[in-house]
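Researcher: I'm preparing a figure for a lab meeting and need a structural model of a single chain. I don't have an experimental structure, so a prediction will have to do for now. The sequence is pasted below. Please return the structure as tokens so I can convert it later.
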Amino acid sequence: MTPQLRRALLVALIAFCAGLAGAWVGRTFIPAPSPPRAELHDFLHNGLDLDAGQRARLEALESGFAVQKRDLEGQLRANNTELAHAIDREHGAGPEVTAAVDRSHHVMGELQKATLAHIFAMRALMRPDQAAQFDAAVTRALTADGQ
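Model: Understood. Here is the structure written out token by token.
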């Protein structure tokens, strides 16, 4: 092995180790940002002064929505499978692919409508002062990605 090759391999090894160390430091010491929905959920449960009755009604709403959301997400996964098969058959944007995309978009819209209905149902449990704080948190959550 020539001295230049040995030096190049040593530099590559040092660069690789530095990259691993940097990745480890980043993952260990720099917290990942919370997704906006998680922040909204945390705010709802911990940032508002909900009374026991509000908490009980909120838990019931969340249980019902969890089932509805799980069903719609299952439909989305099934639609993605159908889309994958259509793409495999058509190898382009043919009628099967277009129909699969349309079915997927329909379910996405249903999920978004269900989520909004859930948000409005939660808001209806709140006093006016809580609702104003909740509205601001929802706005922040919906606009966080755009900032």
